[in-house]
Amino acid sequence: MKKIVTLMAIVIALSSCSNDDDNNKKEFFNLKVGNEWVYKRYTINGDQENYSGKTDTVKVVGIENIDGKEYFKLTSTDDLLDGEAFLRIDKSDHLINSLGRVLHPGTDSSFTETRPANLNYEFGTTTYTLKDKTTITVEGQNYEVFPYSGYFNPYPDKNLPEGVGVVEGYSPRIGFVIKKYRYISTATGFIEYRLVSYDLK
Q1: What is the sign of the dihedral through the CA atoms of 115, 118, 121 and 122?
Q2: Phi, psi angle pair for 132, to nearest 5°
Q3: What are phi and psi of 58, to 5 degrees?
Q4: Domain of life of the organism in this record (predicted)?
């Protein structure tokens, strides 16, 4: 009888740990209906930065079923999401969109991905990797973030500068704190979205 009780206690303990782990993974991205983030948009050119006067409010407005899978629907008031996006956490605990693209790999430093870089035509590739956790200051607030960085490699015939093209800094249980997108034609020009406030449920 004691052996049975001991065995049951071990099973319950393991089950509890597993549930806690699952909850932690879900809470890392903190996708909940009603969550809202407000960003300021800046243009960066080398050492110069200018606030565009624009803010973009991103909000989780619901859950929708796409091809048998549940996605959180997000909307934005400006161009950060191009209107709306559908996101979920996959079995690898990566944040992905409805096209299957990894937007952020969470804490999975082993994940890397190379994708074509294109607008109306391909002009190179971008290789994405997760950098070490770091502390950054954004709009006067300190955040611990996991930066997901994309390094742009142009095709030899395109005469474009290589270098970091994208940085998306995610803070666990808060959301994206900073998003930077480089102008392809220059190595120092970026559009940058900075978190200024958030309301989490």
Answers
A1: negative
A2: -65, 145
A3: -110, 130
A4: Bacteria
Please check whether residue 5 lies inside any domain of the structure. no
177 and 145 Cβ atoms separated by less than 8 Å:
yes
Nearest partner of 103 among 176, 37, 164, 153, judged by Cα:
176
Tens-place pLDDT, residues 12-67: 444 444 444 444 455 799 899 999 999 999 999 888 889 989 899 999 999 999 99
Q: What is the CATH number of the domain that holds 143?
A: 2.40.360
Residue-number span of the structural domain to which 79 is assigned: 31-199
In-domain check, residue 7: no
- What is the tens place of the pLDDT at every residue in 132-158? 999 999 999 999 999 999 999 999 999
Joined together, the tokens standing for residue 101 give 């693209």
Residue 6 lies in a domain: no
Contacts of 20 (CB under 8 A, 6+ apart): none
